[in-house]
Automatic annotation (TrEMBL), chains A, B:
This is Molybdopterin molybdenumtransferase. Pfam families: MoCF_biosynth, MoeA_C, MoeA_N. Its cofactor is Mg(2+). InterPro entries: MoaB/Mog-like_dom_sf, MoaB/Mog_dom, MoCF_biosynth_CS, MoeA-like, MoeA_C_domain_IV, MoeA_C_domain_IV_sf, MoeA_linker/N, MoeA_linker/N_sf. It is an enzyme of class 2 (transferase). It catalyses: adenylyl-molybdopterin + molybdate = Mo-molybdopterin + AMP + H(+). GO terms for biological process: Mo-molybdopterin cofactor biosynthetic process. Residues 181-319 form the MoaB/Mog domain. Catalyzes the insertion of molybdate into adenylated molybdopterin with the concomitant release of AMP. Gene3D superfamilies: MoaB/Mog-like domain (3.40.980.10), MoeA, C-terminal, domain IV (2.40.340.10), Molybdopterin biosynthesis moea protein, domain 2 (3.90.105.10), Molybdopterin biosynthesis moea protein, domain 3 (2.170.190.11). It comes from the Bacteria. One of its GO terms (molecular function) is molybdopterin molybdotransferase activity. It comes from Hymenobacter fodinae.
Length: 409, 409
């Protein structure tokens, strides 16, 4: 049986960058940039006044001058008028462009301004400026015209949108959303609006997978098939042709109603693997339709479905939004967490252990195993924030072990 | 001047739960639940078969019987037919309801099934079951009918939607989205589609605030006003009346074009504070229109706007989505991180220090200060993931200090 590492490698090998599309900048929140953004001007683009006060020549101050005639007042957004007299000053507001002839700003807090009998305004400076350029955010201090600001592959968050706006990127190239068909199977499953018979349960995996795929940036559509190979043979081809990925839950185990592996192969989906050395989620089936969708056929027990999605499908969905294919499922990768209680797990399987996370006062991320009734215990997901990946060769995991945690909250 | 703690308390004091609305479960992703959800049945609702194989009576196996006549086959979704002969078995699939008379399931992997000359199917069990109930997920093993599953205040993620589906919560009560008006001010700002004059810059704070508020669950609309008190007096009243919060950027400092505090007071907005002992973002102004919006008037330097949003406005937006008012801004609270480089900061101000975060191999969250050119250095946000909150009474922060980190990625 395949190891988790080998399964990961086979899933990663199917990563192909999705096409790009052009979006208005405000609509691109959360999307992945496909073309780099450069500074179209210096950052700041001019010597930008950083405090309200007066602009003057540092040398005059350094020579002992303390009172300055205010020649005029300049607001942000006004074209700067030069300082006429090198021993005078310009009253000036934050965000304004520093006038030619001035190099330093003294803030109002350090000034007294008076009007003399001739009606002229004079500023008495009550502190020495520590250096020329004080309270001036100098042109190009942060970035130069032409500098790379956002490389392709950047996820556009609020800060990135702000930088995009500053450089005038009103339209940006981003990866189009992955299109994901979510298919639940199982004769025992009824719609959520229906009262189940005693031996039935309501459908929940499909909604879970759609929500989780949406949070990974996907557009989703939901479908349900009963355990009927003919219905699958009729319904699946359109999904395989139209979507980037098909996420199925259920129907991949050894039971007599588990038609999916056989049906998928008959429909021309190349099986890349079936069964992985892991718990929960051993019967995971994975394949690819040449020219069509990648197929994640996940075991139907809710914890198995959930864990397999976050371990394999979510990193894949994030990776295909990147501009270049990677050989690994690094996107959305796990973080190291410290086991807070001893765990024993004997089978020679990678064990995905549901844990709640807590930030210790020393800055360590602590993982507390959650009591779970196995892969069918859907409610055990509720108090958990992550699952630890426990390697198969080890049986006892002492307190303090540092292990990879796959966060899902 | 107000401390960060006092400012936090005054902001928290304005928290009022927003009204609830009813949504179809799939549309409620990311929203906050307003009514608790209970188990409408046991979890699992019946003795659920957890493996494909045969169901039998444990006692028969324990007495040494190894071969069992298969009476019939039962699929998931079928009403269970009882075991007729206590020494026979039912072939059974995962997800089926365990038949009356059987208590244990032996999986296919541990069986050989043959057909005898009379056409009857017989299963030869090749292992002993370790206990009665093996491979059966017993009714109510995880939760009981009536148990509280999701308390009011739960954020509905993929796992919560799945549980909601299981209990048939096709429609759920959730908090309606906060309505946020984002207003930028400043005569130097031009639209992003416009080529700025040398002394102008493009608008970016408004887009940043809208994006960040959306990520906190808000519906947003964007506005811009020039530095003109008359325009503000005409434009702001409708926003104060129609929105839950108004986020302004710029116009709150000491400059001659900083009309906002005065204008807001004239419009009847009660000033709760102006200026906080913090850097960046000291001129932060905060108030409340009686019967109307809460007003966050943030300083306009991009890093000041950003940090104040994440320190005060985002926790507020998360808190008003909770069903009960809290006295603190605990929602979206900071996590402890370990300073990886010494930092010195002399002024008696709380310092918000931009940092990039890295998970150390020992499970500690490490914070690396980012070089930043001050509160105007928008690009310094790009490599950062968080800001540390450095308390005002301390000047030197040695390597290894554990400090609260406000994450924004």
């Amino acid at each position: 049986m395949l190891s988790v590492e080998e399964a990961t490698r086979l899933v990663a090998a199917t990563i192909r960058p999705l096409p790009a599309e052009y979006l208005s900048l405000p609509l691109a929140l959360g999307r992945v940039l496909r073309e780099p953004l450069y500074a179209d001007r210096d950052f700041p683009p001019f010597n930008r006044v950083a405090m309200d006060g007066i602009a003057l020549r540092y040398a005059a101050l350094a020579e002992g001058q303390t009172e300055f005639l205010i020649e005029h007042t300049q607001f942000a957004g006004q074209p700067p008028r030069p300082l006429q007299d090198p021993n005078a000053a310009v009253e000036i507001m934050t965000g304004a462009s520093l006038p030619e002839g001035a190099d330093t700003v003294i803030r109002y807090e350090d000034l007294v301004i008076r009007t003399d009998e001739a009606g002229r305004r004079l500023a008495l400076v009550q502190v020495g400026a520590p250096r020329a350029g004080h309270n001036v955010h100098a042109q190009a201090a942060d970035r130069h015209h032409g500098d790379l600001l956002l490389p392709a592959g950047t996820v556009l968050g609020p800060a990135e949108l702000a930088v995009g706006a500053t450089v005038g990127a009103a339209t940006v190239a981003v990866t189009r959303r992955p299109r994901v068909a979510v298919v639940s199977t199982g004769d025992e499953l009824v719609p959520i609006t229906q009262q189940p018979e005693p031996h039935q349960i309501r459908r929940s995996n499909g909604l879970m997978l759609q929500a989780a795929a949406q949070q990974a940036g996907a557009e989703t559509a939901g479908f349900h098939f009963n355990d009927d190979p003919e219905a699958l043979r009729l319904g699946l081809p359109a999904l395989l042709a139209d979507y980037d990925a098909v996420l199925l839950s259920g129907g991949v185990s050894k039971g007599k109603a588990d038609f999916l592996p056989q049906t998928l192969r008959e429909l021309g989906v190349e099986q890349l693997f079936h069964e992985v050395q892991q718990r929960p989620g051993k019967p995971f089936w994975f394949g690819k339709q040449p020219g069509g969708a990648v197929v994640f056929a996940l075991p139907g027990n809710p914890v198995s479905t959930f864990v397999n999605f976050y371990r394999y499908a979510r990193p894949w969905l994030l990776a295909v939004q990147q501009p270049t294919a990677t050989a690994t499922l690094a996107a959305g990768s796990p973080v190291p967490a410290v086991l807070a209680q001893e765990v024993q797990f004997k089978p020679k399987l990678t064990h995905f252990l549901l844990v709640s996370l807590e930030h210790g006062p020393d800055g360590r991320l602590l993982a507390y195993p959650e009591r779970a009734g196995g892969s069918g215990d859907q409610a055990s997901l509720l108090p958990s924030q992550a699952f630890l990946e426990l390697p198969p060769e080890q049986e006892v995991f002492p307190v303090g072990s540092v292990l990879p945690a796959w966060r899902f909250r």
